[in-house]
Amino acid sequence: MDWMLRDLAASVPCIRHIVVLSADGLCMAQHGDERDSGDRLAAAASGIKSLAQSIASELPGDEGDVKMVLLELTGGFFYLMSAGERSYLAVTADAEVDPGLISHRMRDLVLRIGEHLSTGSRTPERAAP
To answer: Which domains does the chain have, with CATH numbers?
Structure first.
């Protein structure tokens, strides 16, 4: 999956970091900064996803599904997009990024590899009898 994330970064100038995360906030793949940064971004993205689900559940006819979240911040942009069952794609970018281009390229990436990004539900381990 690394080459696909590199391809996204190369196709959109100003991308800083890309993370593929599970719904519970585990970093599954990343492109950009060091590993700790990817883990922190995955955990933060999971929290933002949870907040967005709470807001979505207040909308009529919505089941609380999160398709995309966009945050415009002083230093740039944060994107979070559903990428498969229980998987998400998170991207940070500088303020100079083209917001339309990045969302379009993220959508293209999700369509290409979405079924490969799905993660199953985690089940607790059973104690040995």
So the answer is: 2-117 (3.30.450.30)
